């Protein structure tokens, strides 16, 4: 008999190439099929399928993903003109209202998920909070009594549902939007950007955005590799240096970098009680999506926004993914960024104190119940 010699796992470079090939295959297939956002969804699905079949064969370097985030942040920063910021200031009360309503609906949905799944309410609540994945996981890790594994599963499945369903909804008969159509003149100029027009401003923007991202990450700025470059680009533009739009291949590469990273986050094989956990995650994601759709219709009644712009502004997905969708369809990127940014900061700064208050309230009630049982 031949000895059973274990095969060595591929090296880091080889695993990165395997991930890149799978991502390119998925993106190419969706591009040929004319799917929306082929270079975001295609790599995500391709890597998810490949890494589920060939375990431990995939790797995606964090700096590559961060570079994609910086590119998206730069694009968002260009949309934050003086006029756009004034418009965002005028809509601050509406941003607060919509964020509060969405979080209230999330809290209600979390109660339903907790009761159906028999899981702690705080775990269900952290899984339902529509913040950035990284921020919510850090928040969950720092919160006592929260099952981090369940929170991660619910958040990742929600993100997957949102990122896949939002483009399909926008291009569905409900929204009446056609592939190749633009809902505004903002954010879609990258498709026809002139490569020669990138110099000399782009290298300056690249250095500043990268430095802002690194500094933001060091000071734990929320979604540092996205928001900090957006802030840097906005400041440079306010100083009078015009920032050129990125060519379409650059945006496609940024989508691929982010989509591949998200695809590797999904590890279905590691789920315990797979069917129940996935069902709860799907219920939470679908519930949040329905809430966002309802609120987007309400937002279009309050402000003269297109329905795709309103939905992308309120969609409980990551700001990077929603920003990419907004750029792809030519939605009002500054409005989308404004609402998503406001919710990100609100969740980052306001939710932790609220959670601490809920924990204290729950602990007090538990002590009262115990003392009541002891005296009876």
UniProtKB/TrEMBL annotation:
<dbReference type="Pfam" id="PF05145">
    <property type="entry name" value="AbrB"/>
</dbReference>
<protein>
    <submittedName>
        <fullName>AbrB family transcriptional regulator</fullName>
    </submittedName>
</protein>
<keyword id="KW-0472">Membrane</keyword>
<feature type="transmembrane region" description="Helical">
    <location>
        <begin position="195"/>
        <end position="216"/>
    </location>
</feature>
<feature type="transmembrane region" description="Helical">
    <location>
        <begin position="278"/>
        <end position="299"/>
    </location>
</feature>
<keyword id="KW-0812">Transmembrane</keyword>
<feature type="transmembrane region" description="Helical">
    <location>
        <begin position="246"/>
        <end position="266"/>
    </location>
</feature>
<feature type="transmembrane region" description="Helical">
    <location>
        <begin position="12"/>
        <end position="30"/>
    </location>
</feature>
<keyword id="KW-1133">Transmembrane helix</keyword>
<feature type="transmembrane region" description="Helical">
    <location>
        <begin position="152"/>
        <end position="175"/>
    </location>
</feature>
<feature type="transmembrane region" description="Helical">
    <location>
        <begin position="119"/>
        <end position="140"/>
    </location>
</feature>
<feature type="transmembrane region" description="Helical">
    <location>
        <begin position="341"/>
        <end position="359"/>
    </location>
</feature>
<feature type="transmembrane region" description="Helical">
    <location>
        <begin position="66"/>
        <end position="85"/>
    </location>
</feature>
<feature type="transmembrane region" description="Helical">
    <location>
        <begin position="223"/>
        <end position="240"/>
    </location>
</feature>
<dbReference type="InterPro" id="IPR007820">
    <property type="entry name" value="AbrB_fam"/>
</dbReference>
<feature type="transmembrane region" description="Helical">
    <location>
        <begin position="92"/>
        <end position="113"/>
    </location>
</feature>
<dbReference type="InterPro" id="IPR017516">
    <property type="entry name" value="AbrB_dup"/>
</dbReference>
